[in-house]
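During the no-cost extension, the postdoctoral fellow (Dr. R.K.) reprocessed legacy sequence entries with the updated structure-token encoder. One reprocessed record is reproduced below for audit purposes.
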Amino acid sequence: MLYPPPAFRFSVTFGSAGRNRDNAFREVNGLGPELETEALVEGGQNTFVHLLPKAAKHPKLVLSRGVATMESGLLQWCQEVLEGGLAQPIAPQLLHVFLLDQDGGPLRVWAVRNAYPVKWSVEPFQSTRNEVAIERIELAYAGSNRVA
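Re-encoded structure tokens follow.
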């Protein structure tokens, strides 16, 4: 096993059963918490500022890939949430991001809890480029942790 592992082989599953596997992502970005802090100036001391911890926050998880077919379960879920006008309650999903070894087995696994789409966009089309059409799906989530 290589250490550190290369980051170019990965996959994403979504749903509690993990049956909806989608390996076609170009990039996954936004894994991991960040601790917010509040600055507190020390009274009578002008030489330093205390940074007090607040709550942990999570950036949006951004998935980038070639524009998917209409059969994509992830695309169907995004359409239900983003184009449904909130007629139905949003059903958050459990996602897993797998960093894979050369044989396709998981080296590392991150669980992303209570994720739901907040933005779906397509990168600009340009007649001067010869590249794949890319879509970006941004997900808000309640928390993540590395499970393996």
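The chain has a mean pLDDT of 87. The longest strand covers residues 106-122. The remaining legacy entries will be reprocessed before the final report is submitted.
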